[in-house]
Write a structure and sequence with these properties.
InterPro entries: Cyclic_Pdiesterase. By secondary structure, this protein is of the alpha+beta class. The chain is built from eleven helices and 13 strands. Strands 4-8-7-6-11 form a five-stranded antiparallel sheet, sandwiched between helices. A four-stranded antiparallel sheet has the order 5-3-12-13, covered by helices on one side. Strand 6 and strand 7 form a beta hairpin.
Amino acid sequence: MATMATTQPNISPHLKALAQKTDVFPLPDSLNSFVDLSGTATPVRRGSTAGNADEEAPAFDNPYNVMIHNCNHNPSKIQEAYNTHRTTRNSLSRHKLLTDPTPIKLDYILLKSHVLQDGTVDHRNCLVFWARPPLRVRNFIATVQDKLRAVAPNLWLMPPPNLHTTVLEITHSRTPEYIADLVKTMRPCLQSIVDHTYTHRAKLVKPMLSFDGSACAISFIPAAPAGEGRDNEKGSHNYNYTYHHLRRDLYDLSKESGVEIDSRYTVPSAHITIARFITTEDHVPSELAVGETAEPEAIASATSILADSSQPDLRATIPAVKIEKSKMEKWVESLDEINQWLSEYEGDGAEWIVGEEKGLDCRIGRLWYGGGETVVLGKGI
């Protein structure tokens, strides 16, 4: 069994000083666009349509039905859409990492609240349904984390107990009181929602390392029959019911409970975040990485952006640290090598059924880094 490296990230004095004198930072994920890159569907709200312009397109109240319709309910096409999304996203991220002089976006909330532990409180309260990967998947992920840490020893690694994939986000970045009201509304339906995976089993397969300038994740794609013409219900697994169908069902069940869905994205992704950037120590020139007297201004350009669209008066400075090109090239090369290894990997953890060991986890609170509190836990397979 793999054991995850436990070395603490090296936070340079200049970065500590910068973090300590800044109280408000934008949400790390506010820098992500959450664009559907599959070419088969567009994340939409109620009343969305799908189909060709010259045919009468059906209207959907559920955004997940758009892809299912555009893929003709075919699990192989749904799998292809998920794979296209993640490979296209990796290609775009790879280009940015290699061409942008300041490609790394540090997670200062994580740095201040979890690493420096300076009393910073993460005010982003959420309500979600998580799927917890079973032990063999967590062990497999620990192996990948070790490979990442061997190249970038100062990465922050998601602890094994915190690993999760978000099947459905009800809302995010709210007050505890707002979340409590939603839970009160949903409470009569929550147990049946989190137990849904016990009778509706969606398999995830073919892990890949997804990455950008903020984080790394292991992404899976929905399972599909191995060959054309095979019975999609052959054997012990029903391939007609995919992970995307599960997300669709949770959306409907949550709506039926009486709440509105305020999710950031419905893109075709089944990812488990496994690492985040909280320092550039592994990618800046060596003299800056170890220089205790270096001023932040010597390595950073400041950009003011909104900290939270709901609080337009809060602004923050995001240091965009210039990296050393050769070190970033080595990092990207290592990511490619890991993905080559993953493309041939068929060992434990390469596939799993959502709901194994534990059913869905209805979770509230400060969830960004795997924390929070369980409201209701579903029946495990």
